[in-house]
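Memo to structure team: turn this sequence into structure tokens by end of day. - J.P.
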Amino acid sequence: MGIRLPGGGIPTLPSGDLDEAPDFLHPISMLGICQNPESIAVLRHSVSHVMAQAVTRLFPGTKTAIGPAIENGFYYDFQLPRQIGGEDLAAIEAEMKRIIDAKQDFVRVELSREQALERFAGEPFKIELINDLPPGETITVYENREAPAAGAPPQSGGCVWADLCRGPHVANTREIHSGAFKLQSVAGAYWRGDEKRPMLTRIYGTAWETPKDLKAHLAFLEEVERRDHRRVGREMDLFSTHEEAGAGLIYWHPNGGRMRVAVEDFWRQEHYRSGYEILYTPHIGKSWLWETSGHLGFYKGNMYSPMEIDNQDYIIKPMNCPFHIMIYKNKGRSYRDLPLRWAELGTVYRYERSGVLHGLLRVRGFTQDDAHIFCTPEQMEAEILEVLRFSLHLWKVFGFKDIKAYLATKPAESVGEQSRWDAALESLRRAVETEGLAYEIDEGGGAFYGPKIDLKIKDALGREWQMTTIQFDFNEPERFDMTFVDADGKHKRPYMIHRALLGSLERFFGVLIEHFGGAFPAWLAPEQAAVIPVAENVNGYAQKTAAALKARDLRVTAELEDERLNAKIRACQTRKIPYMLVVGQREADEGTVSIRLRDGRQLPPMKVEDFADYMEEKVRSRSQEL
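Reply from structure team:
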């Protein structure tokens, strides 16, 4: 059903604001088959109607809700007389093909409100949608009509099914290729996204113009599944979640911890080199901090309820900025002190509904790669350019080179003088253009307190993820009465810039795992090398070799299990260990290792010390190559 209504359809994804947005972004887009976006959306919307017609035929008594086209597919929500599952999808697909083969016309019909209410009597969700339409709104129905008799005029067949819909649709089901769609899954969805409303059954599907396009898309989805960070995380023992102990919270295992230390050490090193100082702030604070910042007014739904301590309300922090402001205000500041660049890997907590939690990508507790820059107006442009350069540097080190910028402009509700908005936006634009980045304007997409740059990266599958945000703030310096003494001796407001380069470490690791499919470059890999003895009599040499490499700060294990050599190699490949060092008696006698890469290639044998030098260089240079 194509009608757009408040509270209906797909929940809007967060914009990426550092403070106001929940900590999650699905890929913005997927690498798919080149299609005309408008025509393929019309096709998918039409297929959703065919699916709804098939479902109501197979399950009498079904109540229909909504069924839009979405990216790469469609869905439809139903209230069914019985529970269905994936095993029912084949029967629904078969019925859809019969409908397509019947060559039904899609015919648009306009109705009065009274006619529409009468037409959909007994359909509670349609009745609600009709009643919510504003007075005077044109109400349209799309009828699926049977093929007209031979010689009869077009669109003269009788109506076999109809849906409340704005359209448009294809003219006839013959335009839908019966081999170019597939139903994919069954899920639950609350009516209009409201947990207090009925739980409906949602059926997802995908539809394309040709079977070849469908086949390519399904192959892409198989690769997405193979790289799914939750699957890879289990296989490589990186992290886990435990709903019985608290939903949306991440437990980092030793392997994940090793990776996280490698990333955090690099992050700190690069921040110090770029003129930042690193802060640590509390996990809770008095509620007046968030009253002053405005978050309790704008963001309360994503914050946890206050806790009472010493007869005062404290809140577990959803963001770090009020604490950084407290440090700024700890003493008087001069223009000579600015800019101040303060960064923190600060763990914050935000409420998310349980139904949207998703591995590392949408969580309730996460560590934000956060920083705030306090500067004079004259320093603003240089600081923005430096932050952008810093961000691009980090992403390229991690292996992401396809990056696009989005400039988010002033929304309808905002604070701050127009002149400051204009100057800030122009600084953002010049920084992006100086770096030669492709960019688009996101009209009205800024936060209420300032414009921003969002950087979106493409992963190895061509999916675009929104990650970095560089954001002005005209709000908090005013609310917290932040000042500095300028060269003329007058107290002035500093400019405040929020920025998160990697976003949150949890989401970043989710994207990183899927980008590499777990086959990380050696400097990031939780296990960089495994020493594999060919027989028990060289276990001692294997242990000695592993110890020597560990002494060089390399992450190495000795595989001493009572298994065949090939089984050990397969196990190491499953763990995606970059280097497998096979040792037998000859290697023990010569002090060498035979080197097998995880992709099956082999390097020439090396002395243990030479291999350690080789590995240290790979780690030092953060090479993407083995």
